[in-house]
Design a protein that fits this description.
By secondary structure, the chain is mainly alpha-helical. It has 14 helices and no strands. The chain has helices spanning 10-22, 29-37, 44-65, 71-79, 81-114, 121-136, 140-165, 182-191, 198-201, 212-246, 252-259, 270-299, 309-320, 326-360. Keywords: Germination, Membrane, Transmembrane, Transmembrane helix, Transport.
Length: 364
Amino acid sequence: MMQNSGFLRTKEIIAITLILVGIKLSDSTPALLAQKAQNGFWLIPILSFICIFPSFLIMLYLLKKYNDKNLVELMEAITGKWIGKSIGLLLFLFAFFTTTLDSRNYIEQVKLLYFPPQSPTMVIFFVFIGVVFFGAKKGIEVIGFTSWISLAFIKASALLVVVLALGDLVIQRIFPIFGSGLPNILTEGVKKASMFAELFFLLIAYKATKATSMFVKGIIIASIITLFEITLFYFIYISIFDYNSVNKIAFPFQDLTQFIELGQFFTNIETMFMVFWLLAAFIKFIILIYLTTWIFGEIFAIRNFEPLLLPFSFLVIMIGLLPFNAVINELILRESLLTIMSPFFIILPYLLWGGTAWGKGDLK
């Protein structure tokens, strides 16, 4: 079965991108950023985006010039077969460990908020990834359609959170605006640029739209919207909780849904938001595991890569269970992964464009 058969449209690409990248507004990333940037952490997504987005645009430009190639084929065409496959393998490892560490993060979040403390992490992990596996087996067309029809409900719930939180904002809490200092903000902005790495993973689906212009239009529009959403929510977190609280709150979005109120007669409204957050989480990892397997299939020329979804899903669970606790997973492993990936995604497109593609004369 050919997976990249060109059925997606602009709206599906927008929906996939908004869910895959935009859900960072509701995970533990704010707490991770606040560790060093303090109350200036809400500026980091802007700086990270400024660092990484030009590199992303260069990759889109190269894909347009090599119009019949996907991401892995592009790297092989520019650098040669074996170097291209090596870079592709590194990209696969980044995608795989992003899926693994992020999924463990979400499992810890689900367990802490909605299950008794003694609940076995392994069982919750198997159930979660089991649902993700069956969703991914439906293929990219169904994933795109599901993302699109779910997007309105997910974003409506997020908008409601924003509206209900506005009355509790204390703007003075953003000062000093650069938190622990401008050098720290700039440094963290560069080191955490890979918080938008999923944009590069999505490039494997460059030929999955009816026309490549649909893919480019959809992913650029969604990227800008995603930046606005993440920055807005991070600003809300710092304005309501202050950095000392965000620094200690692992999951600020969930705390925010418990903090806000919808009148005097509606209690426990966080349950309503939980439903849509879980829906977004499932779709995020359905997309991630599918893209990761797709990248692997392209590296080794496995066009029918769908059977690989099961072993990769199992590996995600087994490796995801290795960190002893959520603190090691988040503050050591996930932060290290973000720091390692950032220079790769910032520099690689320039090397492909300047050092190889231009030097070979393919862009003349």
